Amino acid sequence: MDSTVTNTPQTNSKLNVKRDPVKTVILASMMGTAIEFFDFYAYGTASAAYFPKIFFPQMTPLLATLLSLLTFGVAFVARPVGSFLFGHYGDRLGRKKTLVVSLLVMGVATVAIGFIPSYQVIGVWGALLLCLCRFVQGIGLGGEWSGAVLVATENAPANKRALYGAFPEVGAPIGFFLCNGLFFALERVLTPTQMMTFGWRIPFWASAVLVVIGLYVRRRLQETPLFKLAQERDNTTASPLSEVFRSNWREILKGTFIMGATYALFFTLTTWSLSYATTALGFTSSEFLLLLLMGAIIEFAVLIMLTSVLADRVGRKKVLLTASVALVGYSLVFPYFLTGQ
After folding, report:
1. CATH topology classification for 13-337
2. Quick check: 140 and 36 in contact, CB under 8 A?
3. Winning range, highest mean pLDDT, from 75-84, 214-223, 234-243
4. Alpha-carbon span 8 to 5, nearest angstrom
5. Residue 193 has pLDDT above 90, yes or no
6. Domain limits of the chain?
7. What is the pTM of this model?
8. Burial class of residue 30 in the structure, from the number of CB atoms within 10 Å of its CB (0-12 exposed, 13-18 middle, 19+ buried)
9. CA distances from 76 to 70, 129, 274 (A)
10. Would you tell me how many other CB atoms lie within 10 Å of the CB of residue 140?
11. What gap in Å lies between CA 150 and CA 138, rounded to an integer?
């Protein structure tokens, strides 16, 4: 969702609308993203560890894993759709409404996954329903991610926009930690047979509780000051999507390629590596989940905050360029970490 009014110090000084307290903005943006990514990672973990045997038992192990991870990839087709859809209506109707709807869409799809019968019950229809729910998940997350960052940055002082924008980002490792922590606990308590029968469904059902809490928090959130100002000035547009493609198509392409490279490596590390480590390297699922949990907190969350503070001091472009160079370097050495030696 693109801002309808440029967020500058001059503009901010003219805002007479009531702002949400800083704690409310941080909680609403971070908690919603944490819930959305809890849902997203629940699917990623289940698709790597359980879905091959539950929804594709008729296939060879290799083909079953590939098909399971393919259903995981369905959301990456849907996420741009969700971003454009919720971004369009976010600039027309407001950020708060679209954030509430995106969270609800994601939550319903996630809980529904927990009730899908296995291949033994309904055959290939289980995999088809899985893809459908996964597509809806992707639409919800696409709207959530951009909207949460926008709410945070539109409420931020001009010299702290990167820091405020980091709080929704921190929601991702929080959701990752909660989701994989729950899977880790379940695998320590339940037997492998119980996990395959019903244990894998529990994180999807547990999402319903988190969604209710998230909806309560977000309904208490006010509309952002910049959007209110745009409404007062009658500065909203009837066709935000066409306008942004006409005026900012270069920025869209640049942002798409930057995030594409980032997510390619991120989900290789978090989802594919879980499948590979448990099948080729001899790790148990709980052992590798513990390693992922440590990485999520020590590196993921901490580095998000550090780089956001740095971006407010030295500029976004320098931080992005440095991170991109580091990303290329890491991608070259990463295969050696999975040799099992």
Report:
1. Growth Hormone; Chain: A; (1.20.1250)
2. yes
3. 75-84
4. 9
5. yes
6. 13-337
7. 0.77
8. buried
9. 10, 17, 19
10. 28
11. 19
